[in-house]
Design brief:
The structure is a homodimer of 236-residue chains.
Chain A lengths: L4 E7 L2 E8 L9 E5 L7 H12 L3 E4 L12 H12 L2 H17 L8 E6 L1 H11 L6 E5 L16 E7 L7 H14 L3 E6 L21 H19 L2
Parallel strand pairs in A: 3-4, 3-5, 5-6, 6-7, 7-8
Antiparallel strand pairs in A: 1-2, 2-4
Helix pairs in contact in A: 3-4
């Protein structure tokens, strides 16, 4: 089913195994980073890359754990995530490396770049913006918003934040705190909250529980919001 | 410029002078109420009706002050608004009357109905939902969220709430309170907040001040969100 391929790139001397999906036809094309949920780069994010490629974007799936690491269960994912959560500059540098790789591809030459991420990958997109990285548009899907250990820089990216109102990982006070942070550091941002919706609403395999679970409606609405946003921000 | 016409309808024995804009072609068509900002039904809302008619909706501009009342300045508008603010059941009944009128038109027979409103008109759409009125989709643009004096009913309408993060009339605690209310009473709702944006962002004539003022970008984004929402909710 997938149309892309594994794509090796360097992050400060460490090999990352991303996933690169290319549109049909001749480019150059706008590019989009796809940063995975906390398990690491999986077939779910590869499928997102393929969907974006079908819409005319060069899509690079991010391997922020490096070496193609994919957790085999939630416990391993949590342990992996903890290592980067405790070293936010490293998380940011892994994203910067992926952005640099995407920018350097012949298929994106001179084009605008976007970035999107799910869950901990949503946090990674926020952190990419927070270090002042040069990209045009970022989308955070059921992300996590705690401020990083490093000083936040003026953001260059326009941001769209989509979350569920009932998401236990970004409760109302966290949403308000993020909005206040973005007010201070980001010139162009939007927050779209889905009522009656919890964490991981894009993931059909998410275990349903209070504050978490798949929502076909929120999944479809957020995908439309994301693709409309990238269409508006990454072309022309 | 305008293509619609004044349209008289009854609200519990009081004459209202709304504005009716019809699509070209043969109906029936989905219908949309357009509830004005606090000055009353003006050419701005008539233009919105015309834009909606051009997209295939029967659009009825609401005269919630009745008798075609339009304030000549902000002071008069504030005084008019105060009368309905102090009688929220009357405001709701004026909206119910307009909805009943829209439903009874031959051009909307058997079709779904939506409702939208600006500022105090946004509040009127919330109150229409809060009395449990039967409509499919409501959009609130830079609205005001204080709870009504009447008991809130289970809402039938799906709602989209668009506001500016910096709007002094719906600060963060008011947004959170509305979201909590909707969590309790509405099965399908979304809130879209625009960063760096204040009250009245759709109004090119709004006096710029802290927490208020026109935003071409938020105006365009909210119009797209509104029309996409009505397209999704009012067809089929």
């Amino acid at each position: 089913m997938t149309k892309g391929k594994d794509h090796h790139y360097d992050a400060d001397g460490t090999t990352c195994i991303g996933y690169l999906a290319l549109p049909d036809g001749h480019g150059p094309f706008p590019g989009v980073l796809v940063s995975p949920a906390f398990a690491g780069l999986s077939d779910k994010e590869r499928a997102t890359c393929d969907r974006l490629a079908a819409q005319g974007y060069v899509a690079l799936g991010v391997d922020y754990y490096a070496n193609g690491t994919l957790a085999k269960d939630r416990e391993e994912a949590a342990a992996l995530m903890a290592t980067l959560q405790s070293d936010r500059p490293l998380l940011a540098s892994r994203l910067v490396a992926a952005l640099t790789e995407l920018r350097g591809l012949p298929q994106t030459q001179g084009q605008k770049l976007g970035a999107m991420g799910y869950c901990f990958g949503g946090k990674s997109i926020l952190d990419l913006a927070r270090v002042g990285a040069d990209f045009a548009a970022g989308v955070i899907l059921h992300g996590v918003y705690d401020a990083p250990s490093f000083p936040i820089q003026k953001m260059k990216a326009n941001l769209l934040v989509c979350d569920g109102w009932d998401d236990g990982l970004c409760p109302p006070d966290a949403k308000v705190a993020l909005a206040q942070e973005l007010t201070d550091y980001c010139d162009d941002w939007q927050m779209l909250a889905f009522g009656g919706t919890g964490h991981a609403f894009t993931n059909p395999d998410a275990t349903p529980s209070k504050g978490s679970g798949y929502s076909a409606k929120a999944d479809a609405r957020s995908w439309k919001a994301l693709t409309d946003f990238f269409h508006a921000e990454l072309h022309g």
